[in-house]
UniProtKB/TrEMBL annotation, chain A:
Protein name: ABC transporter permease
Transmembrane segments: 28-49, 95-117, 124-147, 153-171, 210-236, 256-278
Family assignment from sequence similarity: Belongs to the binding-protein-dependent transport system permease family.
Species assigned in the record: Paenibacillus anaericanus
SUPFAM superfamilies: MetI-like
Pfam families: BPD_transp_1, OppC_N
Amino acid sequence: MKPTLLDLPLQADDKNKRIINRILNTPSLLVGSIMLIILVGLAVLAPFISPYHPSDQNLYAILQPPSSEHWLGTDQLGRDLFTRLIYAARTDLKIMVLAEIIPFCTGVFLGMLAGYYGKWIDTLITLVTDTFIAFPFYLIVIIVAFASGAGQRGLYITFILVGWIVYARVIKGLSASFRKQEWVASAQTLGIPGVKIILRHLLPNVLPQAVVVLMTDMVGLLVAIVTLGYLGIGIAPPTPDWGTMISDGQSFITTAWWLSAVPGLAVVYTGIALSLVGDGLADLWRRK
Amino acid sequence: MIKSSNLLRKFVDIDSPRRWLLLALIRAAVVIICVVTAVFFIIRIVPGDPAKMILGEYSTPEAIESMHHTLGLDLPLWEQFVRFVQNLLINGDTGSSIISGTSSRELIAERAPVTLLLIAMASLLAILISLVLATLAATHKDRLLDHMIRIFPTITLGMPVFWVGLLLILIFSVRLGWFPVGGVGEGVTGTLHSLILPAITVAFSQIPTLIRSLRAQMLEVLESDFVVTLKAAGIPNRVILMKHVLRNSALPTLMLLGVNISYLIGGTLVVEQVFGIKGIGSLLFSSISKRDFPVIQGIALYCAISVVIISLLIEIASWRLDPRTKGK
């Protein structure tokens, strides 16, 4: 029997089913994704979930313990902690994602260049990464963030400057190992120019690994954003941010410990979700 | 001519350990030169005039000019760089503090001991804790204990160190009253006692990576032929573990800590801030808030150069000690 048009969507369905099955068989990916979806959902829907505004002060209800009215209590200015928590998720997650874009692209590209061409490009890029790595990460971040001005702009400049190194290092090694493989050699004998080989053939092969690194790196980036906020050189108040919330709560650690503990838990939650997704993706691609 | 180039080739023979050592030294030296150059250019890359940052937005042009002169910023760039390197080579210094006039080398040397002590304590704790946990995980492979220990890195990866420090203060200082809430105590025992919580905090950030690779390392040793032979010879498990497996895993742990030394120092700077310890970290923050550029440069330079030297030493040590790379 000839295949009819009716068979085609069925095949597509099959393919989708297989992908879904694979995801279901990778529990860490499943759990991590669900955790992320909940988090992003809370952040995006924040104005609809909470009846309060993150900077609404209520001096008659300061430092209240959790209650049905204020799910996680209130801070020293009577602001609702839960509201601030989910609004802070908007700020921190937005910066985390946006600040990763440029470092991810430059790092992957430079890594491929160094790995594919080797020689002096490799030497040069290795020298630059070695120099950057000699400086303790937080030292660089603190100095650059401070010098380029507190606030979000400083955060972006900092991560554009230092964020690409992780990717460059990992992708360089990976690309160097691919360079010795037959398909690269055959592409070269066909006379395909190097840049084209890198973008068309090397890129799809290194991308999965780069995405796995992206997941762990985002955790580190989030922790750095929060740390800078805590140190007072990151996101400036009144924009809600988990880091400044923790440092605000520090003065009340003896009486209202949850003010500092809860925003930290939000960071830990995000970290677990992202590393579960990263582990899951790595598993998924390894089995493939 | 031919002879000398042959000699040179002999000296830098591909398999010769000398060549390896020479290359490692050259590489470290080049990185240090780059580090010095980077530190010199830090205040020039960054947007904004350092003199204006020091004096404030509304300073007079004359004041800015005289500040330029004090900082040496009115000189041509290459001359500034030569002076910077000269001062560094002769005095080991990056200039005097703009605020107090003390040399930044002295300021750093004054604060360094407590930071170094904290780093040493944290490294020791990190090694001890991860050795114990990794041993437990490796000897209970695929059992509940192993799974519990393996989840640990996933959970702790996203924990900000300063937050861990705050929780430890809350539990052990505020609630239980075992340790001071902040600051450094008097005398040797007082100092050590007050640094225990900060050291645990710094160690905490290192433990996840250490456990992950140590566990893998130990499994490899546990499944190796010589351990199987020892077991067959009837030597008790505990003796094998203490005498052979641990000894074989200690070196890789130290190496890994060396690789992470940069993160360790960075974490320490932040943790000092949480516990109110007057070390390099607090010097960094006070210099930053006073825009004291020479001191900031000095801290960056000393941290980076120690990282390069420590990594080099550990690289050499592990290469000398590891029998597998001895012939290399």
